[in-house]
Fold these 4 entries.
Entry 1:
Amino acid sequence: MVTLSDIRDYVAKLGIVKNEHCYMGKLNTKYEESIGCYHLRRRGAPRIPLGGKENAAFDVLPVSFLIHWNKNAAQTDQKANELYRILQDLKNVTVNNKQIKFCIMQVPYPQDVGTDETGIFEMVIEAEFYCSKAEKEEE
């Protein structure tokens, strides 16, 4: 099963941010030019196929990304859209021996959420990752 940690590792390997500036969960210090990965809170029942969980071929992991960039709105927007396009085009990626089949964006474009208390512009991307239940050798 793909976890939030696997998604964080995937984003860190994209080269958009330094590895140490890609995080999951809450950090005491948010660095400029960083991306945070969070579980996307959704309501509703789990997705279980007919016949039970043992018949499921894939899992769905809803994720929210916080792009915490700098004091320039245009540069923040550029980086958020770069990540958005990569996620939108994602197909059959292996990370930590786990297969991500594809990603469905949950927003039409990165959402501007304004600035933090220090004036750093932030944007949010929401996506669902469809992942194979079977592990795969990394390519």
Note: The radius of gyration is 16 Å.
Entry 2:
Amino acid sequence: MIERKAFFISGENLTRIEHKKKILVIFDMSRDEVVGVETVDIEDRFVSTEELLLFLQKKYIRVIYVSEIDSKTENLFLDSGLVVKTSMTIKNDKLFNSLYLSPPIF
């Protein structure tokens, strides 16, 4: 079974949901292996947290990674079935630790 995990990224860093310039990098995982990747530019795309939540649900995302999140938004996401991982809680996360967020320099 495929599990979808999404990272909120700005530049080369994990970022907050509220950050203006961000992209969403979605990983399709099967048995702890990445089997697909999708990148979505979500800069100024959603007018509310609820609209973003609906988008994430339509994309079948089950886990989100953010740098930080306020408790009200986190509870909204948790109540909707999304797991929220912040920079404080992902120290031992296998997927996060395998990422290299800087683009290659040629």
Note: Helices lie at 49-58, 71-79, 94-98.
Entry 3:
Amino acid sequence: MEDTRDIETRLAELEASVRNSAAAQRVTTLLSMQLLTRMSLLTDDPHEFVKIIMENMERDLERTVKAAQDADEPMRVEAQAAASYFSVMAASAKRMMLQIPARSTH
């Protein structure tokens, strides 16, 4: 009976950890998008600025994922999680940029 309670306790701790991690990811994404938006508005072309930042991040992440292919399982899992997280951020950046009018070049 004690083993079952111990398993239930560990399971509850794991579930709380996952919820906290997901919440932290949402907060980090929101913060990142706010910073990216504010910085982009200080440039001559906010859309180009965000595009360059996102392309650079994607390139760095691709290198990380590629390097992790030869690493141990935890590193591969972490690299895949980072790639998934980047996908969420990239989608957020696209939505954010829809709210910012493109600057006229005339």
Note: Residues 44 and 106 are 13 Å apart (CA to CA).
Entry 4:
Amino acid sequence: MITPNIELDNNFSLSFSAIDGTFHEIFTEEGVRSFVVVGIVKGKVTSSSLDIQEIEIVKGIYEGSGENAMRVAEYEEARKAKSDIVLMDRKISFDTSLGIIPPKDI
């Protein structure tokens, strides 16, 4: 865990990836299909600025529950992140109880 003291460190820099997803379920005669979108905002926080460096959108269509597909897609993106910190709005204890293993550095 990084705990900077900004008053003492004028060269403070921390990269981040903020990940969030949404889904929409489509009910058809063949069953449920889910449209899942995951957004990733990448940037850097320094002692004097907050810079957004990249915004990425990942989308897909899945069979079955959109909630579960979104959850898995968010964690897949977290595993790929090359940031000092990954920000997510997941309840990790709940996801773990469902058998999803979050990345170790989240």
Note: The longest strand covers residues 13-28.
